[in-house]
Amino acid sequence: MGNAFLYRMPSGIPGDVSRPSQSTIEPVFLDPTNPFSGYGLFGKVVAGKFIPVGAGDTAAVVTGLYVRPYPTTGGAASDPLGTSTPPQGYGVGNRMRRGYMTVKLNAGTAALDSQVYVRVATPGSGKPVGGIEAAADSTNTIAITGATFMSAADASGNVEIAYNI
What CA–CA distance (Å, rounded) separates 113 from 69? Predict the structure, then answer.
């Protein structure tokens, strides 16, 4: 017996490209000494390697989103779909330069065409550095140029964003 969606289908899985035909995705080298904590996070290129956006970064350094490969077992074979952490030792991953992706919303209320922000300072409970938010928080977040939300987040905090469309 399957599950029924009474009100709304889930938005997706963080890092999943939601409209592949409308996306530009390319392989990138990853840095095992500076791994991503999850899929669907913005990154930058430093010394030829794609790493997570971090403390003190500006929107100018952002070059794309870390794509969740499919199929994957994540960091551990027992991780359920949607909660996996990226493998820490892999040397190549995928970066979405343009398109639509499901991401995890950590704070704020997303709405159609509203601005996407990334936390770059003052982490807090449920608000990690590099996490995606829907509201500016002074100098603690940066507005990602060309990134907007496509709807409100689902019950799990997952939401589709458009990037460089």
Answer: 27
